[in-house]
């Protein structure tokens, strides 16, 4: 079956899905996107993804007619058109066709683009070989994914040249930041540690869910600065993102070699309990002290 895409509510073959060449998402990278995993037709953590999208659109001054809630129905319609119940759904919102010149006005005619990729219903979380990137970490200080992806694409090019399947960015001060398409956690003595959002990482929806899930299962969770020396003194390392969930790290360059550990495996198992029903981490978002996770 040929893949179908959704452009502004129109379902059509992927090869025919296009936007005007003067769309500011294309000309200037002005827009944003989310990727949501579907399990048995359920869009996992969809409320959290849409809330992040809502904030991003507001900050960028992109006015989407009908708001973001309608996009859940459009994503489900795209899955249905592709006869797909298990897969990844990519939703992109561009600033829209606004001519050649940059605009000082709010963008009131954006476009949305939805397409899908088939995945299985089970966990697809491969072991990761990670390389520390020399590519500079560009942090735009926003909590959502924009269409300006040059730093990430250059990182991907470097990662591939080093025969790794994920790259790890460092800040200009040498702090561990994030993967090209993931957030990083280390495990040390039953405590999970992840870099704080304040250093400019994109704090993913999956990252937040895993933090809450870990606390619910009795693990300590901390956000703190990490450096490369910290990575050499760990029990386990794993990465998180929406499509691959929780991925064990088995090697970081020649610095460390690890086996997939028991805490990572436990969290992977617990993760699967919620994939077909949970809409938001808010259902899990309080620890034993009643403190809300950010």
What does this structure look like?
- This protein is of the alpha+beta class and 294 residues long.
- It has two domains: 4-118, D-amino Acid Aminotransferase, Chain A, domain 1 (2-Layer Sandwich), CATH 3.30.470; 128-284, D-amino Acid Aminotransferase, subunit A, domain 2 (D-amino Acid Aminotransferase, Chain A, domain 2, Alpha-Beta Barrel), CATH 3.20.10.
- Helices cover 24% and strands 28% of the residues.
- It is built from seven helices and 16 strands.
- It has helices spanning 24-28, 46-60, 69-81, 150-161, 205-216, 228-231, 262-271; strands at 4-7, 10-13, 31-39, 42-43, 87-94, 111-118, 128-132, 145-146, 166-170, 176-179, 183-188, 191-194, 220-223, 236-241, 245-252, 256-257.
- The strands form two sheets. Strands 7, 9, 10, 11, 12, 13, 14, 15 and 16 form a nine-stranded mixed beta sheet that branches. Strands 1, 2, 3, 4, 5, 6 and 8 form a seven-stranded antiparallel beta sheet that branches.
- The longest helix is centred in the N-terminal third of the chain and has 15 residues, at 46-60.
- The radius of gyration is 19 Å and the shape is globular.
- Residues 286-294 have low confidence and may be disordered.
């Amino acid at each position: 079956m040929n893949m179908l895409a959704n452009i502004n509510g129109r379902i059509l073959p992927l090869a025919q899905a296009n936007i005007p060449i003067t769309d500011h998402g294309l000309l200037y990278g002005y827009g944003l996107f989310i990727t949501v995993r579907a399990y048995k037709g359920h869009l996992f953590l969809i409320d959290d993804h849409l809330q992040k999208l809502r904030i991003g659109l507001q900050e960028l001054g992109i006015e989407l007619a009908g708001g973001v809630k309608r996009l859940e129905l459009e994503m489900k319609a795209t899955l249905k058109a592709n006869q797909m119940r298990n897969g990844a759904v990519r939703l992109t919102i561009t600033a829209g066709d606004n001519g050649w010149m940059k605009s000082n006005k709010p963008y009131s005619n954006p476009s949305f683009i939805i397409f899908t990729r088939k995945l299985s219903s089970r966990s697809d979380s491969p072991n990761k070989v990670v390389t520390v990137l020399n590519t500079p970490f560009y942090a735009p200080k926003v909590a959502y994914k924009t269409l300006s992806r040059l730093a990430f694409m250059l990182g991907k090019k470097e990662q591939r040249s080093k025969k790794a399947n994920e790259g790890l960015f460092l800040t200009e001060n040498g702090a561990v930041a994030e993967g090209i398409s993931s957030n990083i956690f280390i495990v040390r003595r039953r405590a999970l540690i992840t870099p704080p959002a304040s250093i400019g990482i994109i704090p993913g929806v999956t990252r937040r869910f895993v933090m809450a899930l870990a606390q619910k299962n009795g693990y300590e969770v901390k956000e703190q600065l990490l450096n490369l020396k910290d990575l050499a003194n760990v029990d386990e390392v794993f990465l998180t993102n929406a499509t691959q969930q929780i991925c064990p790290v088995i090697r970081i360059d020649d610095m460390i070699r690890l086996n997939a550990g028991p805490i990572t495996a436990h969290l992977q198992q617990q993760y699967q309990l919620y994939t077909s029903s949970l809409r938001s981490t808010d259902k899990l978002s309080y620890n034993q002290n009643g403190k809300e996770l950010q």
